[in-house]
Amino acid sequence: MPMVGDPSAVARAAARHMRGRNALRRKPNNGGWAGSARYRPFLLLSPALVSLTLLLLAPVIFLLVYSFWLRSADGRDIPAFQFGNWQAALSDPFYWRGLGETFAMSALTTISCAAIGYPAAYFLARCRFRNKALLLFLLFLPFWVSIIIRTFAWVNVLGKGGFVNSLLMGLGVIHAPFALLYNDFSVVMGLIYLQLPYMIINVYVSLDGIDRNLESAARTLGCAPWQTFREVTLPLSLPGLGAGSLLCFVLAAGSFVTPSLLGGPDTSFFAQLIYDAIINQLDWPTGSVLSLMLLFALGLIVVVYNRFMSLSDIYRSLAK
Amino acid sequence: MSAVSHAARPSLAWNGLRVLTVIVYVFLFAPIVIVVLLAFNSARTGSFPMEGFSLQWFGRLFGNDSIIDAFATSLILAGSSAFLASVIGTMAAIALVRYSFKGKAVVNNILSLPLLMPEVVLGVALLMFLRFLHQPRSFLLLLLGHAVLALPYVVLVMQARLAGIRPHYEEAAMTLGANRLQTFLDVTLPLISPAVIGGFLFAATLSFDDITATLFWKQPGIETVPTKIFAMLRTSISPEVNALGAVMITITILPPLLGGQIIRRLTRNKGMRETQ
Fold first, then answer.
1. From A168, A232, B89, B218, which residue has the greatest number of CB atoms within 10 Å?
2. Cα–Cα distance between B138 and B1 in angstroms, integer?
3. pLDDT score, position A109
4. For B163-181, what is the mean pLDDT?
């Protein structure tokens, strides 16, 4: 719970102002520095809205405009309105395969996170350790470590001289190291590792909010423990599971660093294709089409999700 | 009572959950611990088995000018973008919590946009837009970009804190003759200072850790620590990378660990000053 400030300190601060001025001569509540009351919230919001408009909304709209421009041989793109870039990208099976692969691996990541994260969140919500706050705090700690470190850490774990292989070889279980790194397996491992805390936190918040009397009532009315879980607890925790899954999926499907560092030569996550088009091939019209494809595909998922569940659950969990 | 339901729970399933949770925590922290461990490994290969304890990789790190430069860039960038995000975000949060106006839902959604947009798309869009405006990639672009990435988090943290503070204190100050600026500086700001510090630290860490958008926005030749690590990993995995990772982990994990302590001390000092 947020702590409430000391009211006496506030009263003292207010009294200090009283001493410094003749209070009677002033009209209270009309400070005047922010103009009339109706515009005040917008004045306060304007820096945020202006920067988001200039640095986010306008660029994304420009992306759409650019995707219709004509790419010329000398590398200078000509303003135009033609669907050539869209046609080329949408009819190229390479990009569709990339999108399909990205979504399949993100789905696998999400399902794994749910399968591992839900039971852990359930344990955290129902256990009665004295330092449960510490356990919850630990869940947030990985967020403070850079994604690039949490990703390359897996090179140390899965590589040929990595933790898993040297442990197994040291124990004599295997004689040659497994090829665990630089393939789809290591990418999914890395993604699960990055997204798992989001899942656990979201499910935990939702399980923690369930009125325990409902479970007791179900038990009293003759439900077996498993039945109570399946028919009372699980349905009530679905919003958290849904929010966690959406976050896991969207973040995984947009990831660039993890597939670049842990993937093999034929790993082609969609974000890598975008980076390749923009930075390596300097083909900006195609790059903008690909960016918009990813944005639309993920946006569609968010919109569908929002029809069934509320996005505000996600924002709330992020603010914790 | 819930104690009864625990006793009645089949202990096998409960123990299974307990074991799984322990495994999850090991899974979450083992890779980070391994990075730190290997940073002290004397072997040249940067992998297992551990051969002996050595600080040579840290020494080599601090002797490397490009890494020191990257640290300086990262720290300046993190501090300035977090400051910008904190100021803008606090103003926005006050508007959203303390005022009612038309279109609040829309504003809320716009402010949350950077959360759900893939960073790659943000990076590409802003890069291309600036090229269109004939603006070169610059430090300012990184600064503004990082501030926008952190903005939704700052707004969320500040909103949560402001919503927990009743407006009575502010109203009392204004009734007693303080104007809005004075009320903000002397009443609101002290009350929300833990969230301001928390939001600032979080924004600074986001900037310090950011890699994907930074790869698109940075000028050639300028490196932040994460892009430096990215470049180092492209060539080969050296033990130096683990040492650099260990330093990064220490720097970014310290704020949340110390944050609580600092805030407690700050509020205590303030209390002492006010009683004098």
1. B89
2. 62
3. 97
4. 86
The average confidence (pLDDT) of chain A is 82
**Which residues, numbered 139 to 198 in chain A, qualify as contacts with chain B under a Cβ-Cβ cut-off of 8 Å?**
139-142, 144-150, 152-157, 159-163, 165-167, 170, 193, 196-197
Could you tell me which of B196, B93, B89 has the C-alpha nearest to residue B149?
B89
Select from A195, A120, A116 the least CA-distant residue to A151: A195
Instruction: Looking at B11-118, list the stretches that DSSP marks H as alpha helix, in order from N- to C-terminal side.
Output: 11-39, 56-62, 65-98, 104-116
Q: How many CA atoms lie within 13 A of B183 on its CB side?
A: 22
Tell the residue number behind the tokens 């551990």, with chain if given. Answer: B50
Tokens read off for B96:
């959203």
A78 bridge partner residues: A70
Task: Return the CATH fold of A82-319.
Answer: MetI-like fold (1.10.3720)
Which residue on chain A is closest to B38 by alpha carbon? Answer: A156
Under a CB-based contact definition with an 8 Å cutoff, are residues A98 and A273 in contact? Answer: yes
Asked whether the beta carbons of residue A294 and residue B121 sit closer than 8 angstroms, the reply is yes
For B10, the token pair is 């089949």
First-residue to last-residue Cα distance in chain B:
50
ipTM exceeds 0.90, yes or no: no
CA distance to partner chain B, nearest, from residue A202 (Å): 16
**The token pair that represents A136 in the structure block:** 């919850």
Distance from CA of B1 to the nearest CA of A (A): 8
Task: Kindly state whether A52 is in contact with chain B, defined as any CB-CB distance less than 8 angstroms.
Answer: yes
pLDDT at B160 over 60: yes
Q: Which of A56, A136, A141 to mutate to test the interface with B (most CBs of B within 10 A)?
A: A56
Cα angle value A152/A157/A158 (rounded, 5°): 95
Write the DSSP string, A35-95.
-STTTHHHHHHHHHHHHHIIIIIHHHHHHHHHTTSBP-TTSPPBP---SHHHHHHHT-HHH
List the domain boundaries for chain A: 82-319
For the stretch A33-87, pLDDT in tens is 444 567 888 888 889 999 998 999 999 999 999 888 877 766 677 787 888 888 8
Residue A22 belongs to what H/E stretch? none
Which of A145, A162, A311 is closest, CB to CB, to B32? A145
Residue with tokens 């630089």: A182
Three-state SS sequence of A263-294 = CCCCCCCHHHHHHHHHHHCCCHHHHHHHHHHH
8 Å CB contact between B82 and B203: yes
**Most A CBs within 10 Å: which of B18, B22, B24, B224, as the mutation test of the A interface?**
B24
- What one-letter code names the amino acid at A272? Q
Listed in sequence order, the DSSP H helices in B164-238 are 168-175, 180-183, 189-209, 212-217, 225-235
Pair of tokens at residue B19: 């074991």
Q: What distance in Å separates residue A52's CA from the closest CA in chain B? A: 7
pLDDT, tens digit (0-9, with 9 covering 90-100), for A88-135 = 888 889 999 999 999 999 999 999 999 999 999 999 998 888 778 888
Q: Output the pLDDT for position B108.
A: 85
Distance from C-alpha of B224 to C-alpha of B215, rounded to nearest angstrom: 9
- Separation CA A272–CA A277 (nearest Å): 9
